[in-house]
Write a structure and sequence with these properties.
Alpha-Beta Plaits
C-alpha cells in the first residue's frame, strides 16, 4: 500500500474555505479505486499548514 502525504500552506484567512472545499471533494477521493482512507489535519503550531494524507 502507498500512502500519499501532501503538506499544503493555506493563505491566511482562507482556512475555512479550504477545509470546506476539501470536504466537498472528499467523497470523490474516498470513492477512487484503491483508496483506503483520506484525512486532512490542521497544524497546531502553524494552523494555516494543512496535511492531507491518502492511502
Amino acid at each position: 500500500m502507498i500512502t500519499e502525504i501532501a503538506r499544503i500552506e493555506v493563505t491566511p484567512g482562507s482556512e475555512a474555505a479550504f477545509e470546506a472545499a476539501v470536504a466537498e471533494v472528499a467523497p470523490l477521493l474516498e470513492a477512487a479505486k484503491g483508496c483506503h482512507g483520506f484525512q486532512l489535519q490542521r497544524g497546531i503550531e502553524r494552523p494555516r499548514v494543512q496535511t492531507q494524507s491518502a492511502s
